[in-house]
Amino acid sequence: MTGTHTATVRAEAAWPEPGDGAPPPLPGFVHSTFNPLVAAVADRCLTRAYGRAPAPDGERTAVVLVTATGDDASAAHVRATVAGGGRPGPLFFFQSVPNSVAGHVAARWGLGGPVVCLAPGGDPRAAGLAEADLLLHDGDADAALLVLIETASDGGAESAVAMLLGGGNHE
To answer: Where is region (Disordered) located (predicted)?
Structure first.
């Protein structure tokens, strides 16, 4: 692999888009908007590609979630709770790793490919595209849902982009 992005973009979505407020709540995930945001942007992208869940049978679609910081709000809450002598609720253990929400998206849409979560030190988009290309090139997946999410360190707005990738010149 040369590091050049070779897959085609089948569908793309962002959050927020005009008219968006907060992402809708996601059952089983509490406290922060990180996980609901991942699910909302993924759903939007996959709906644009497939119309509705589940994805077409026979297509192995990987989920590649890329975030440099992860769910900072939940991590800060757990730290503060423990430091104050409290006990975090059990849902925080479930949602403490980004692959929980990536797996949720895969299950909701019937995606049969691998689930990969990255926390790159460099360019998140380049790292995510390279991972998606590798999964496609190696035959591990027929398509890849790439979700890039970043949280604002100052407590400001979060944003996310999702792309459904497939094809390209490696097939």
So the answer is: 1-26
